[in-house]
Amino acid sequence: MSFGGPNNPYGPQQGQQPGYGYPTAPPMGPYGGAPVMTTMPGSVSAGRVFLWVIVPLQLMGVALFAFIAGVLRRTSSAGAENEASFEKLKEYSTGALWALVVFALAWAVFAAVLALKFSDGGNRVRITAIVFGVITAMLGIYPFVVVGLLHTVLGILIAVFAGNANGTAWFNRARQ
């Protein structure tokens, strides 16, 4: 009794050929979802580094504004209003300069907190980083000196890196 051809369903079982059959399934995340992202993508990590670069720049601005406010207060009380170096400084009141000190310090703290939240933050951190980057870029346009240009570039890069596909995937990932 012959079993016939290779396609005979009653014939002897043949071994599986390599490459045939069902492919292996990708690793599953919690509750059968997509796999959990465990490492931060490079562009998101770069955005986080740029936030950390803004922190010392802001602290240098705090020191500069505080120094200028101190010089302005000292020279105005000494009656040196006719000095050439004082001409540019007398456009600002000491109160306005101290307000700039407080704002620059608050912006540095905000950048540091935002950078710390990149590793475990959700979609709100991504949106906040995008808004932070846009506002930083707009504030850097006004003086547009070297520091202003640097703030503008860093702000744009932070907004782009937090808002691209890698940033969206990182901040919207499933948490364990």
Give descriptors for this structure.
single chain; mainly alpha; 62% helix; rod-shaped; membrane; transmembrane; Integral membrane protein
Please provide a written account of the structure.
This protein has 6 helices and no strands. It is mainly alpha-helical and 176 residues long. Among the domains are: 48 residues; 54 residues. The longest helix is centred in the middle third of the chain and has 36 residues.
Structure summary:
The protein has helices at residues 42-77, 84-89, 94-117, 123-141, 146-163, 165-171. With 176 residues, the chain is mainly α.
Helix content: 55-70%
> Main β-sheet: number of strands, strand sense, barrel status?
none
Mean pLDDT: 79
Low-confidence stretches: none
Structural class: mainly alpha
Radius of gyration: 30 Å
Number of strands: 0
The ordered string of helix (H) and strand (E) elements is: HHHHHH
Strand content: under 5%
Region (Disordered): 1-22
Transmembrane segments: 49-72, 92-115, 127-145
Protein name: Integral membrane protein
Keywords: Membrane, Transmembrane, Transmembrane helix
